[in-house]
Amino acid sequence: MTDRREETEVPPTEEMSLSDLREEIRMIDHDIVELIARRTYVADTIAEVKAEEGLPTTDESQEQQVMDRAGKNAEQFDVDANLVKAIFRLLIELNKVEQRENR
Description:
This protein is an all-alpha fold.
């Protein structure tokens, strides 16, 4: 993912007006949704592979790896790890529900 501030040469956030800051949030929100869509597409493809190979929907080891990685990434970016893990838990659960419905 590219930094849109670099693409559009927006001033550092300290120098931005309220309206500029809200536009920055709007762009970030768009990027988040785009990334969720990409993640969902890949998860759907994984579900197809699991179905073809007769593998179970749930892989607790993989889920734990995702959660561990989410926590480490949160720490790297100085974001609340519990919040990030809660978001990832929700993404994982939504993907599992979709996988079960499509079997």
